[in-house]
Specification:
The radius of gyration is 32 Å and the shape is elongated. The chain has 21 helices and 23 strands. α18 crosses α21. Strands 1, 4, 6, 7, 8, 11, 12, 13, 20, 21 and 22 form an 11-stranded mixed sheet that branches. The structure holds zinc ion (ZN). Zinc ion (ZN) binds next to loops.
Length: 631
Amino acid sequence: MEIDYAKIGLKVGLEIHQQLNTTAKLFCSCKPELFKEAPEIVFLRRLRPTQSELGQVDPAAYFEFQKGVRIRYEANRETSCLVEMDEEPPHPLNMEAVETVLTAALMMNAEPVDEVHVMRKTVIDGSNTTGFQRTCVIALDGCIKVGAKRIPIQHASLEEDAARKTGDEEGGKVIRYRIDRLGIPLVEVATAPVINSPAEAQEVALAIGKILRDTGRVMRGLGTIRQDLNVSIPNGALVEIKGVQELELISRVVEYEVQRQLNLISISEELKKKKMEAAAINEEFVDVTDVFKQTKCKVIQKALEKHQNVKAVKLPKFKGLLKRELMPNFRLGTEMADRARFWGRVGGIFHTDEMPAYGVAAEEVEALRKAVNASEEDAVVFVADAPENVADALRAVVERAREALSGVPAETRAANADGTTRYMRPRPGAARMYPETDIPPSLITNAFVRRVRQNLPEPAEKKLERLMKEYSLNEKLAKQIADSEHSVLFEVIVKESGVSATTVAAFLTETLKALKRDGVQTEKVSEEQIKEIFRRVGSGELAKEAVADVFGWLSKHESKSLRDAMNALGLKMFSKQELEALVDRVIATNKQSVEKLGKNAFGMLMGLVMKEVRGKASPDDVGTLIREKLK
Ligand SMILES: [Zn+2]
């Protein structure tokens, strides 16, 4: 179905978060890195229950829900200290990070604030050991142009990243977080909600991503960038979608969310036509354990073995609606299951729209319908689990069913890798912020702003033009270099090595990409080493054909030198004499053909000699020598 987004009044706002490539974290001097090994330090804390930030959900219920949850934090000494563990106050704000955000902000024409005030924003999920996230506005009211359209930038802020969730235990009662990521500086850029189509949302995100990259001081790679989207349509609701990890996924996420909202709106219209009212959906949970005494359904069997029970609730006039697809492979029933999982800590729900299935027999469905007194038009949802979980899960199902009458619930959702989304939590009210009393405000002086403004990175288009002109690169290579993280390195290498710009550019873009694809850990070779490789190429000690091999070897032997690499690979270059002797020998063994072909023997000889000396002599030198000999 083709959707006319302008006509339906779609509005999208973006929040782009990207990690900064600083030498230390935001409020301490720990390394801003993640670790893969087993943790050196583990500590357990209770989740701090909070009654704020609850939106439309019953605060008392949410408080109770959080009360039993404990958090297991994992750390190592290199990436965490007492600050991350909330055992020591934060150190002064990292000004290197402030400068980077200021740089990006000025590139987006934003107005710097005079004083940076660190604020605390309540966090309810345990991802911050303190119970809040620290954040500070660096600049306000910017704007960028995307195509012909002016996109207002509401603010550019500096935030601390949260701990990363690595799993949970005991049915969600213990959540595991690694605090290595906690405190890594993030830039946050928020646009006004002026975006009107999925494609435009993606374009704007790419434009902002590019500006951040142009600062040269943001981290690269999956997990370093996260987008949050605010999506709304008239008669729908404002839905916040968190954690889209790839810029390329944004248009699909928006597209699916619009589909979901339109389908929910049409479901609510159908229910209204049937004269359904919220009051008709009752929290009457009927124990139907007996119905399933002999069941072949594995999930229910397992629950009964643990002496848990099965309870059901009737959703009047919902028959057929639970299997209605809202977005690909995602139905109204899926939304109810998400809610039940979240609030009831259950594995999932069963409903009659998908019955008989999962080993539940037709007779059992009949008995179930009878037990809850369901008519032909009604749907029945049932859950098998511990009694308190069953009750919480069914309550969440009833709440979601009631919301279906009014259309789209305002909520916070999390992005899945395929572009669909899942329920995350109720949408909080206005973000509650309060001042961080442990950190005094930092000044952004005029002199500071002036210095940053004078050193702003070259805008991307200008840079592209200059690279093509100054280095005679073709447009494709120039674009790749301008976009790459090595654009500064490129210019340094060309200037100091004298190697042709095209050779250096092709290596830093295409060759590195190919090596990475082949599993070479390209980040293990330092910029210094790359520079040295090209210095040797420039001086004729190393053939440019051997650069990739040398690079690959160095990536596997971290503490070794370039000299070691060349020795190990047998890449000693031929001396002039050795090369001459070789050329003489090749000519002698092919005497007849050479005499027959005369000057036209060049190509043949070149091929034969290069076969023996590839990587050990430059083709230019070989060519010159052969030409001399042929005379
Ligand atoms: Zn630290």
